[in-house]
TrEMBL record:
The lineage of its organism: Bacteria, Pseudomonadati, Bacteroidota, Flavobacteriia, Flavobacteriales. Keywords: DNA-binding, Membrane, Transcription, Transcription regulation, Transmembrane, Transmembrane helix. One of its GO terms (molecular function) is DNA-binding transcription factor activity. PROSITE patterns: HTH_ARAC_FAMILY_1, HTH_ARAC_FAMILY_2. It comes from the Bacteria. This is AraC-like DNA-binding protein. Pfam families: HTH_18. InterPro entries: Homeodomain-like_sf, HTH_AraC, HTH_AraC-typ_CS. Residues 232-333 form the HTH araC/xylS-type domain. Signal peptide: none annotated. The keyword Membrane applies. The chain crosses the membrane at residues 6-26, 38-58, 70-88, 100-119, 125-147, 159-176, 182-204.
Length: 337
């Protein structure tokens, strides 16, 4: 297979993956429907633009066809910005005046047959204006992050930041190519394919699926931190995690909050779910008991039960996941003689 065929195959796979991801987001009922819609539109806009890049290398496209591809950039910018608002600020209302942000895209598509695109000076000016439009929304999106950094939850902020950076890098590639800094035109399509596979991988992880899980929550960032401090204090002072019947509901009752808010606080501040958070404390306790001279003759299963684990299997799995050693190996290596 020739080099050109490999590049074409990789680019096309990225485009297909992006179309699949867009369609998936349009039909996704988890999290914020509005956020899913705008993210799908942003990815679709980039896909239209990148698809044009691929076709333009291997086919002789008409000016109106190139304009349709260029129009995707006008869809991406406002969609990315509104996605940030829906995700980070839980903006529920999309006002009729907000449609004006998509007017450049609508007009560009409508008049694509008459807009010049023939490598003349006017065409270059239009090209720069279109990408300047995207640059404005990239800056606005970064502004969302900076202006609301004290209120934005960490996971949401990191996810949106990465999306904006990815979009900005695509913008830089095409502007760099226009300025003559990059001669490999289809490189933008390859880079886009890489980004899409990275984003798709994240969406296959629970992290991305849970981004909008707490969008309707009234628990703000500062209250979330205070709740987390109360939980850690409760675990430290009373060691309630040693109870193998401990549940999210029982702990939330002790702290006088709803299980949902407690789960949210753990997820946002520790990037763990409740079970993992409890297991990490139990493992830390087990590490201290395994090297305690008073426990030298105790069996591993006794240590497991004393630390709150219900069976030896779950103990071994949790312990090795955290320490990279089995309990027996840890005792031999660090146990006091």
């Amino acid at each position: 297979m020739s080099k050109d065929m490999v590049i074409l195959a990789l680019s096309c796979l990225g485009i297909v993956q992006a179309l699949f991801l867009s369609f998936y987001l349009f039909t996704l009922n988890k999290g914020s429907r509005r956020a899913n819609l705008f993210l799908g539109l942003a990815i679709l806009g980039l896909t239209i633009r990148i698809g044009k890049s691929v076709l333009n290398v291997y086919l002789d496209l008409e000016p109106w066809q190139r304009n349709l591809g260029l129009s995707g950039i006008l869809l991406t910018g406002p969609s990315l910005w509104f996605y940030g608002k829906a995700l980070l600020l839980s903006k529920k209302d999309f006002l009729s005046k907000d449609v004006l942000h998509f007017l450049p895209f609508i007009l560009f598509v409508t008049f694509s047959t008459v807009i010049p695109n023939n490598a003349n000076p006017i065409s270059y000016v239009i090209y720069i204006l279109v990408f300047s439009h995207l640059a404005v929304y990239v800056f606005l999106s970064f502004g969302l992050l900076v202006g609301n950094r004290t209120e934005i939850r960490k996971q949401l902020g990191n996810w949106f930041r990465n999306l904006v950076i990815g979009t900005a890098l695509i913008w830089l590639f095409y502007m760099g190519h226009l300025a003559g800094l990059f001669s490999f035109y289809i490189g933008g399509a390859l880079f886009f394919s890489l980004l899409i596979y990275v984003f798709s991988f994240l969406f296959l992880q629970k992290h991305a699926f849970q981004l909008g899980k707490y969008n309707s929550s009234t628990l703000d960032k500062s209250t979330s931190k205070l709740l987390m401090e109360s939980l850690k204090q409760l675990f430290s002072e009373e060691e309630i995690y040693l109870d193998n019947s401990l549940s999210l509901e029982s702990v939330s009752e002790r702290l006088k909050v709803s299980p949902r808010k407690l789960s949210q606080a753990i997820n946002e501040n520790e990037e763990k779910n409740f079970s993992d958070f409890v297991a990490s404390h139990r493992v830390e306790k087990a590490k201290s008991l395994l090297i305690d001279p008073n426990y030298r003759n105790e069996k591993i299963i006794a240590v497991a039960y004393d630390c709150g684990f219900g069976n030896i299997t779950s103990f071994n799995l949790a312990f090795k996941a955290k320490t990279k050693r089995t309990p027996s190996q840890y005792r031999r290596e660090f146990g006091k003689v």
